[in-house]
Design brief:
By secondary structure, the chain is mainly α. The chain contains six helices and no strands. It is elongated. The chain starts with 17 loop residues before the first helix and ends with a helix.
C-alpha cells in the first residue's frame, strides 16, 4: 500500500473475481457506516495488492476486512473520547457546584449540574461560559482531557488491544501475500 492513492473510478485493475464474491460478503454495518465506504476501501486494497492467485485473493479479502475493522475501532475510540469528555465536564462541574451544598438540596443541585453538562455539549454559548467557569477554578482543557483519559482508561485499553490485534493480523497477512509471491516463482522453477 505504498502507491499513490487513486480515485474510486480508477481502482478497477484488481476487480474481485466472481467466484470469490461469496467469500467476501459485505460486513454487517453499524449505524453511521456506509457500504460504499467499505467497498471503496476494499477496492483500493485489492487494486494495491493486485492478488494473483486464489490464496492471494483470500488473503486480500482478509486484509480488507481487517482494515475495515481497524477503521471502525478508530471511529469508536473517537466517539468514546467524546462521551467521556462529557462525563469529565460533569465531574468537574460537580467539584465546583456541589461543594458545600446542603444534603437537602443535593438532588436538585445534581440535576442542574447534569443539565449544565448537557448544555455544554449542545449549546455553543453555554460551552463557552462553562469552559470559562471551569478555567476560573483551574479546570483548563488539559485538566479535562486528563479526566477523560482517567475515566476511559479501561475501555481505551480494551479498544487499543482490539486495534493492535487487528493491525498485527493485517501485517501478518501482508507478509503472507509477499511470501506467496516469492514462493510462486520457486515452485514454477522446479
Amino acid at each position: 500500500m505504498n502507491g499513490p492513492i487513486q480515485a474510486a473510478h480508477q481502482l478497477t485493475a484488481a476487480a474481485q473475481p466472481v467466484e470469490f464474491e461469496v467469500l467476501a460478503p459485505p460486513p454487517l454495518l453499524l449505524p453511521g457506516e456506509q457500504l460504499d465506504h467499505y467497498q471503496a476501501l476494499r477496492q483500493a486494497i485489492f487494486a494495491d495488492l493486485a492478488p494473483q492467485s486464489a490464496i492471494e485473493w483470500l488473503l486480500a479479502i482478509d486484509v480488507a476486512e481487517l482494515s475495515w475493522e481497524i477503521q471502525r475501532y478508530r471511529v469508536l475510540r473517537h466517539k468514546l473520547l467524546e462521551i467521556y469528555r462529557h462525563k469529565a465536564i460533569e465531574a468537574a462541574l460537580r467539584r465546583i457546584d456541589m461543594v458545600g451544598i446542603d444534603s437537602d438540596f443535593e438532588r436538585e443541585a445534581e440535576y442542574y449540574t447534569l443539565q449544565n453538562a448537557l448544555s455544554w455539549q449542545i449549546d455553543p454559548v453555554a460551552t463557552t461560559e462553562i469552559d470559562a467557569r471551569l478555567a476560573a477554578y483551574g479546570f483548563d482543557q488539559h485538566a479535562i482531557t486528563t479526566e477523560v483519559y482517567v475515566q476511559a482508561r479501561e475501555v481505551l485499553v480494551l479498544l487499543e488491544g482490539l486495534l493492535n490485534t487487528a493491525q498485527t493480523k493485517r501485517l501478518l497477512l501482508l507478509r503472507e501475500i509477499r511470501n506467496q509471491r516469492f514462493a510462486a516463482p520457486m515452485r514454477q522453477g522446479r
